[in-house]
Design brief:
rod-shaped, mainly alpha, single chain, 2 domains
Length: 199
């Protein structure tokens, strides 16, 4: 009878121990992955790359910790560290999301301001064209400059479209390139005009 009671108690204790074993935080993992994907969808990797990489690293660390615990004997598993890291991923993702939105607005404003400045610069170039020397050599040079002005204006049209479509980083890169080209044309024209004045 004693043996039966001992066996029963042994089974009961084992059952309690196995049912109290830590379980992998599947819900928390799915939530953290979804949070990182949501941040990725708003282009955090482009606008705040360092922060996004840190977020991704935290998620990877949590997943690795879960794998390490899964590899252990059931009674020795503990997901406390993984749960803490996953909770941190959720907090970080909110911060990265907010910082991405802020950075987007900053880049948008920068691109819009640059667009206005380069548009003014193009108008100055067009005005300088009217004052540039019109001799045989000058005519060929002016035709080339006018072709470049058309190219710059097409760049500016693209920039406007990019801003409207929310691709502010590409817009900023394009408007900077257009600005450099327009500045080069302005310098060339001013030099040609100054040269004719000295004659």
């Amino acid at each position: 009878m004693k043996n039966i009671v001992k066996a029963f108690l042994g089974v009961a204790v084992a059952a309690v121990m196995f049912t109290s074993c830590a379980k992998a935080p599947e819900v928390e993992i799915n939530n953290a992955k979804a949070a990182v994907e949501a941040v990725k969808a708003i282009e955090a990797a482009r606008y705040v790359p360092a922060e996004f990489n840190a977020l991704q690293d935290s998620l990877n660390a949590a997943l690795l910790e879960v794998e390490n615990q899964n590899a252990k004997f059931a009674l020795f598993r503990s997901y406390k560290k993984a749960n803490a890291t996953l909770a941190n991923v959720m907090t970080m993702s909110e911060q990265v999301k907010a910082n991405t939105e802020t950075r987007k607005e900053e880049v948008k404003a920068e691109a819009q301001q640059a667009l206005a400045e380069v548009t003014t610069l193009v108008n100055e170039v067009k005005e300088l064209i009217t004052r540039a020397p019109k001799g045989k050599e000058g005519k060929e040079a002016l035709e080339a400059i006018q072709g470049d002005v058309v190219l710059v204006e097409s760049f500016l049209a693209e920039v406007s479209t990019l801003i409207n479509n929310g691709d502010f980083l590409t817009a900023l890169d394009k408007v900077k390139a257009a600005g450099e080209k327009a500045n080069g044309l302005k310098t060339e024209l001013e030099a040609a005009i100054a040269k004719t004045k000295r004659r």
